[in-house]
Amino acid sequence: MGNTVPATIGTRIEDVDTPCLIVDLEAFERNVAKMGRFMQENGLRHRAHAKTHKSSDISLYQIEKGGACGVCCQKVSEAEALVSAGIRDVLISNQVVSLKKIERLAALATRARVLVCVDDLGNVDDLSAAAQQYNVVIECLVEIDVGAGRCGVVPGAAAVLIAKKIDEAANLKFAGLQAYQGKAQHAYDYNERKEMIRSAVNDVEQTVSLLKSSGLNCDIIAGAGTGTFEMEAASGIYNELQCGSYVFMDADYQRVKDKNGEFLSEFENSLFIYTSVMSKTKADKAICDAGLKAQSVDSGLPVIYGRDDVQYVKCSDEHGVISDPGNVLKLNDKLKLVPGHCDPTVNVYDWYVGVRNGRVEALWPVTARGMAF
Amino acid sequence: MGNTVPATIGTRIEDVDTPCLIVDLEAFERNVAKMGRFMQENGLRHRAHAKTHKSSDISLYQIEKGGACGVCCQKVSEAEALVSAGIRDVLISNQVVSLKKIERLAALATRARVLVCVDDLGNVDDLSAAAQQYNVVIECLVEIDVGAGRCGVVPGAAAVLIAKKIDEAANLKFAGLQAYQGKAQHAYDYNERKEMIRSAVNDVEQTVSLLKSSGLNCDIIAGAGTGTFEMEAASGIYNELQCGSYVFMDADYQRVKDKNGEFLSEFENSLFIYTSVMSKTKADKAICDAGLKAQSVDSGLPVIYGRDDVQYVKCSDEHGVISDPGNVLKLNDKLKLVPGHCDPTVNVYDWYVGVRNGRVEALWPVTARGMAF
Q1: Which terminus of chain A is more exposed, N or C, with fewer CB under 10 A?
Q2: CATH T-level topology, domain A25-248
Q3: Contact B151 A281 (CB under 8 A)
Q4: ipTM score here?
Q5: Considering the domain B25-247 in this protein, what is its CATH number?
Q6: Which uninterrupted H or E stretch holds A221?
Q7: What top-level class would CATH report for the domain B2-22+265-365?
């Protein structure tokens, strides 16, 4: 990681080496404060999602300053990194099914409150065995598929079956439901998102009611993301929301429209890929140093922040092609790119360069970078 | 990086944690041997491109066993990592234009032969000043844009102007031309590639001839990649080829057709994303643990190796959706994915897990992972 530190504290932003990830600390802090206020005003717990940023510094900030009750992450290795940083309440909002990973999960539960999602009956046996071996309690949320079409059982009876088995298993605690509608987060149309969440809420209500008939109560009804959290909040049934992207935002989230057909504007772009013009041999274009290894383009190309005279139009391994119809860019000019998709973009960097008033104030490692297992 | 080691030496392949990158060592070695033989038989130098793998172990293998004369890379930080691993002949096949990076380049030239590409007159002054300061010689290739539309000057007079300036500059050596047609590498149609390279060769010949009239000789005429190297080799004018992807291959290269309309078949897939089924709640699909953070999907989704009964059909941050019409997959089943695009996929991993005869034989760090500046 040594060769990848792009700056030192106090460096002026103009002198920061590129490409690198910069965080506008003021925008970031406003985003965290805004979400914290929303959760407090609505009497909801916020379990901030660390999959977005993979940073223990940011997770701790969300807990200490943003009122988050704990964190979510997606992988055991991420959870290990966060627990090592002192975070003591971690939900892996995902299935953990290999025996090796289950053992790591149980070991981790000796040091922190650990919760995990479950969508398989056999998995309950394996989790219980490991929890007994390590003399810990692992809290389990039954994941129901509320429309994303990925993990999770069909809402209703199938979920009750797993919940019962968890409830009866030694060293496991049935803690509630995971009901995240991942597909809805980036649905650009407001009414489409609303319909997806209406349907998810319906699934949750039906399942909670069936669980109640079986004598099982849900402490936690979890889900929601930056694209839909106000809808889950208004449902009256979700009580623990898992927003992540709101800390940074990205170009794809800027395409998500609110009910007035405007951009979702509650949150500001605080994350940028800082890039330089490295070749300028053509009048109408410039080549910058942020290509495919400096970002993920799965959700489209980055957007150049604060500029409408130039446009990022093509991305290859090491280069970005910038259309420059006015021939305004010069060699070594620097630009801020709003990444197309923040989560996988962060995952190629080792450092965040936090900037305030034009100077580097923070260097935060991307603690769980590459921790995919 | 500690939390990201997926195996230990001797581990059976079935017990390697997922997702991770595995290298079939025998296929890898055959690929390197095949390219080495080709270069030797054609009297060409092979400056193997390290941008593909970012691994000092693999670069050293290409030099020691594959007959490569040295390496290429794209970034100063990559060059630093490779020089630290003992590699003494490194071309940065890219422009280095910021003063900070130029100083690092000059410092590096105290320890190794360092070459760089140039496409700007002002850059010549900066390189010369730094080379004088460090009392080193930096060798410069003038990059000409032979059709890729990225870096490089127009072939012909503009290149001669820069070459002359380099030739006259203190502590710089004009070493030849960089003439890489990046766009041609992944053009699927053989005749399209052939036409692109014919045009590139024409550009090179014209420029070399103009240079000669100015009394400048090119020691190095560099370019070519895995998709076109036989064409540059046949040109009679390129003398230093820069293939990289041939060591691994990927799903997109499998779409590149040879003159008979078949897949390019000289090289074998040796790189795989190893993944496990982590949720199986639906009869017709399975969810695996390799999503957007385990690969780059810029050139399409990965292909499941050796299987035509199941297909990777969708990719989200943490999950892959596998279509399983026969309901044959079970929880914890493992699959090998051929990545859509090897270079940016490698860049999210910290380790290669080298496998022979079903056991882990090598753990190679991705030495220059994330080294983008």
Answers
A1: N
A2: TIM Barrel (3.20.20)
A3: yes
A4: 0.96
A5: 3.20.20.10
A6: strand A220-223
A7: mainly beta
